[in-house]
Amino acid sequence: MARHIARKRFGQHFLADPAIVDAIVRAIAPKPRDAMVEIGPGLAALTQPLVERIGHLAVIELDRDLAARLRTHPQLKVTEADVLTVDFHALARELQAPKLRVVGNLPYNISTPILFHLLDCVDVVADQHFMLQKEVVDRMTAAPATGDYGRLSVMLQWRYEMEDVLHVPPAAFDPPPKVDSAVVRMVPLAQPEAVDAKLLSELVQVAFSQRRKLLRHTLGRWLEQRGFGGSFDVQRRAEEVPVHEFLALARSV
């Protein structure tokens, strides 16, 4: 079969280090008959060891040439599509699974939109293991009062417990990216705080829109426009507000 050339428009960097692949598989800990979905299987570096352990795998691949290769494997259910258009609720029903285990080496150029797309489907997810740019994982897991803490931190920490489980250097890929990578484990919280997701998203986006300014210039005005009469300290920056305070504010607006 002809060698596949990585396509820049898809942000393709193929995992090529067997030791890293083994470490990721150990972190995922696949079990027979798991309902697992892999996003962006590429040249199947991770796909093959997963199939060997669970017997079957659903994969989502946008590149038509790679999708054609993957269809030659009878143990794979191949969806040729942009993952941002995939309905994971429908996929769970199709696989007859109450919960999906989602894994993948996500394209770095659209990793954040993918994370937010999956946030809307978190009720059918058992866990997620993703290879991402290390900088993105740092933002996802960041604590308040740090430079990495932002909208992504708040929105994901509302619904997931997250852990940076593995550092991956550029040399592990072909072609090597210009950044370090990391594998993150994301486990949906059993009892997340109930808030309006759309409202929380808007609130947090406004709060971090000018992160160097005090919140009275951004979120304070947003709250005034909504006639908010409660108590919330806007004499601080967005990065100083912990997740639970953003959630409490969203509930009271």
Write the layout of secondary structure elements.
Layout: E1 14-15, H1 18-28, E2 36-39, H2 47-54, E3 57-61, H3 64-70, E4 76-80, H4 88-94, E5 100-105, H5 111-119, E6 125-133, H6 134-140, H7 151-159, E7 160-168, E8 173-174, E9 181-188, H8 197-207, H9 219-225, H10 243-252
Helix pairs in contact: 5-7, 7-10
Can you walk through the features of this model?
- This protein has 253 residues and is of the alpha/beta class.
- It contains ten helices and nine strands.
- It has a seven-stranded mixed beta sheet with strand order 4-3-2-5-6-9-7.
- α5 packs parallel to α7 (151-159) and α7 (151-159) packs across α10 (243-252).
- It is elongated.
- It starts with 13 loop residues before the first strand and ends with a helix.
Biggest sheet: strand arrangement = 4-3-2-5-6-9-7
| Sheet of most strands | 7 strands, mixed
The H-and-E topology, N to C, reads as EHEHEHEHEHEHHEEEHHH
Poorly predicted regions are 1-11
Helical segment count? 10
Quantity of strands, as a count? 9
Determine the fraction of residues in helical runs and give it as a percent range.
25-40%
Kindly estimate the percentage of residues that lie in beta strands according to DSSP.
15-25%
Identify the quaternary structure here: single chain
Give the CA-based shape: elongated
Computed CA radius of gyration, to the nearest angstrom: 20 Å
Mean pLDDT score, rounded?
93
Distance between the termini: 59 Å
Label the structural class.
alpha/beta
